[in-house]
Amino acid sequence: MTDKLLFRGGTLITASEMFEADILVADERIVAVGKDLTAPDAQVVDVQGKFLLPGGFDPHVHYDLPMFNTVSSDDHYTGTKAAAFGGTTTVMDFIPQDWPTLEEAYQAWRQKAAKSAVDYGFHMNITRWDDRTRAELPRLPEWGITSIKVFMAYNGRLRLQDGEIFEAMRLAWQHGILTMLHAENGDVIDILVREALEAGHTEPIWHARTRPPEGAVDAVLRGAMLAAQAEAPLYVVHMNTAGGAEMLQYAREQGVPVMGETCPQYLFFTEEDLKRPDGAKWICSPPMRTEADNDMLWHALEQGWMSTIGTDHCPFFYDGTKPIVYEGEEIAIPGKELGKDDFTKIPNGLPGVGDRLPVLWTEGVVKGRLTPQQFVAYTSTNPAKIFGLYPRKGTLAPGSDADIVVWDPDMKVTYGVAVAQHRTDYNLYEGWELTGFPVQVYLRGHLIVREGEWLGRRGMGQYLHCGQPTIL
Question: What CATH architecture does domain 55-383 belong to?
Answer without folding.
Answer: Alpha-Beta Barrel (3.20)
